[in-house]
Amino acid sequence: MATTAKKTTTKKTTTTKTAAKKTTTAKPAAKKTTTTAKPAVKKTSTTAKPAAKKTAPVKTAVEISVNGNKKIETLMKEFNKQFPYLRLSVCYSYARQAVAKGESLGGSIDINKTLASVRRADSGGDISISGNKKVKTLEKEFDTVFGLYVQVCYTANDGHRYYTGSSSDEMTLSALNKKCEANGCKKGEWK
Q: Can you state the angle between helices 135-146 and 173-182, rounded to 10 degrees?
């Protein structure tokens, strides 16, 4: 009978060891859950930082879209908002001939009209205005696309108004705007 008792005791010890092994197996599963949670937090914070950086350049890089449906007054205001020390003078194409003859600029346009209603009959299209566009390029595009005489202008600090000359025509709109600001030109005079 003593032999039978030994066998029973041995079986109980074996059962206890097996139960302990199962508990040990459960611990690594808990570690996997903790490890998986940490990278998910890092991915979220890494993704959020570049999104904030991309938003800032978009605000500074505004482009003005011009088509025949735009009112001249709206165009002039948008241009002056983008380039606060510059203004846009829009005239009929025959005004170019008057200026070439040394006469005053007499081809004023009703600014409440759309570009389509005042442009040359055989013209039409779209123009985009951005800071890196040269003054002469913008003026030529208005002549080509709309058949209109457009001049980029500025108002000096003494109130005198000027059209850009040959040296200014080679500058970009942003560079000319900065130069006018540095020279003390008046700001926000779109008319």
A: 130
Contacts of 71 (CB under 8 A, 6+ apart): 111, 112, 113, 114, 115
* 140, containing H or E segment: helix 135-146
Question: What is the token pair recorded at 60?
Answer: 């500074």
pTM: 0.64
Provide the pairing of β-strand 87-92 with 148-155: antiparallel
Measured from the Cβ of residue 92, the count of other Cβ atoms closer than 10 Å reads 17
With residue 90 as reference, give the H or E element that holds it: strand 87-92
Residue type, 127: I
d(CA 124, CA 144): 9
pLDDT (0 to 100) of residue 179: 96
The residue-averaged pLDDT of 84-93 equals: 91
